[in-house]
């Protein structure tokens, strides 16, 4: 979501944006990026290793379109970017979203031996920056630019909320507990479902929604069936536009074991969802427990059900935390500020080149 949302705010008179992606099934945001003014190209690859085999195609693209700066996300595109920096001399920025400790040993090793072969690194949180400094000890500059959310765009829409509730066949008064996540182990969605099971046993008038998809979908579906939650937990699948779904949610629940600084959390805050979450990674830099939402330690994820229970016993708390979350997003996690910092970085590096 950061790609089209930042593009809407970028100065497209000063910058021309081209996006290359490699996994064909990751095409959900293509239309949104094009609508926002970006050029999008897919260079199909089956896996991480085959991404690196697309280096020559990317090199040709750089020359044809006179690309003056490359911004890479995720390790394996980062490895490619560093190679292109060495052979083409085009400055490369790499954004690190995760802590080094969470990567596969091979990824960590490749990161360590190639990390200085780029112009600059962006860490999405202080937690991520500390991990880089501890594990890599880089010579290249590492800056922290916090992820942001477009608070003018992500505003709760009551009509959209009603439409989603009608689609789910639930009443307007039903409390909806939701999340948005890629179905992978770090999100601990099976544990998320177990938390909701405990909540639903005490509050049978609640409904859960999980927006997203991924390799663990069959496991997630099996867990829902095992706990007999099919009638009160909806899997919404991938949604290019998550705003209607966030509008329908009263409580946004996260059970992650690790995070960088999750965009979905910031979007939920901007949409006035009451936040209940673990303190994974950069989340603890966003949520002030008891002020902007309720937060437990990563290892105490089972306590999330008690936090949700607390909110359900006092509906006014849901409203209070939702308003506090919105204010926090507006004051400290503006996408405008993020874009401003990125453009300064782009300008400085392109000028140096």
C-alpha-based Rg, rounded: 21 Å
* Tally of DSSP β-strands: 12
CATH H level, superfamily name of the largest domain = Glycogen Phosphorylase B
What fold name stands as the CATH topology of the largest domain?
Rossmann fold
Write down the overall geometry: globular
- Enumerate how many helices there are, as a single number: 16
Characterize the quaternary organization of these chains: single chain
Biggest sheet record:
6 strands, parallel
Q: Estimate what percentage of residues fall within beta strands.
A: 15-25%
What's the CATH class label of the largest domain? Answer: Alpha Beta
What structural class do the secondary elements suggest?
alpha/beta
CATH architecture of the largest domain: 3-Layer(aba) Sandwich
* Overall mean pLDDT: 94
Tally the structural domains: 2
- What is the H-and-E element order? HEHEHHEHEHEHEHEHEHEHEHEHEHHH
Tell me the helix content. 40-55%
Give a structural overview.
This protein is α/β, with parallel strands linked by helices. The protein folds into 2 domains: 2-148 and 335-352, Glycogen Phosphorylase B (Rossmann fold, 3-Layer(aba) Sandwich); 158-332, Glycogen Phosphorylase B (Rossmann fold), CATH 3.40.50. It is 46% helix and 15% strand. The protein is built from 16 helices and 12 strands. The chain has helices at 2-9, 30-35, 48-52, 55-64, 75-88, 105-114, 126-135, 158-168, 189-202, 217-226, 243-248, 263-270, 283-286, 304-313, 315-332, 335-352, and strands spanning 18-21, 39-42, 70-73, 92-96, 120-123, 142-144, 175-180, 206-211, 233-237, 251-254, 274-278, 294-296. The strands form 3 sheets. It has a 6-stranded parallel β-sheet, with helices on both faces. It has a 4-stranded parallel β-sheet with strand order 3-4-5-6. A two-stranded parallel sheet has the order 1-2. α5 links the parallel β3 and β4 (92-96). It is globular, with a radius of gyration of 21 Å.
């Amino acid at each position: 979501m950061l790609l089209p949302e930042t593009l809407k705010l970028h100065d497209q008179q000063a910058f021309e944006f081209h996006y290359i992606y490699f996994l064909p099934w990751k095409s959900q945001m293509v239309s949104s990026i094009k609508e926002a003014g970006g050029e999008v190209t897919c260079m199909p690859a089956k896996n991480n290793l085959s991404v690196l085999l697309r280096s020559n195609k990317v090199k040709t693209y750089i020359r044809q379109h006179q690309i003056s700066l490359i911004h890479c996300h995720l390790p394996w595109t980062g490895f490619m970017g560093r190679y292109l920096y060495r052979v083409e001399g085009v400055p490369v920025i790499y954004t690190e979203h995760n802590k080094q400790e969470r990567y596969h040993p091979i990824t960590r090793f490749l990161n360590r031996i190639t990390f200085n072969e780029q112009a600059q690194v962006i860490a999405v949180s202080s937690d991520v920056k500390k991990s880089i400094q501890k594990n890599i000890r880089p010579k290249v500059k590492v800056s922290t630019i916090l992820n942001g959310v477009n608070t003018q765009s992500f505003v709760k829409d009551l009509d959209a909320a009603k439409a989603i509730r009608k689609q789910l066949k639930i009443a307007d008064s039903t409390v909806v507990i939701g999340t948005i996540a890629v179905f992978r182990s770090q999100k601990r969605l099976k544990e998320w479902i177990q938390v909701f099971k405990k909540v639903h046993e005490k509050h049978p008038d609640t409904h859960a929604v999980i927006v997203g998809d991924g390799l663990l979908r069959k496991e997630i579906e099996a867990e829902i069936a095992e706990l007999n939650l099919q009638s009160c937990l909806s899997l919404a699948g991938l949604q290019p536009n998550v705003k209607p779904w966030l509008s329908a949610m009263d409580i946004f629940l996260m059970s992650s074991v690790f995070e960088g600084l999750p965009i979905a959390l910031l979007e939920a805050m901007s949409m006035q969802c009451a936040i209940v979450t673990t303190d994974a990674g950069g989340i603890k830099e966003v949520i002030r427990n008891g002020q902007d939402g309720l937060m437990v330690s990563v290892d105490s994820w089972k306590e999330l059900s008690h936090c949700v229970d607390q909110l359900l016993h006092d509906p006014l708390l849901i409203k209070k935390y939702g308003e506090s979350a919105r204010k926090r997003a507006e004051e400290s996690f503006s996408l405008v500020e993020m874009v401003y910092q990125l453009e300064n970085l782009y300008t400085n590096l392109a000028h140096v080149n």
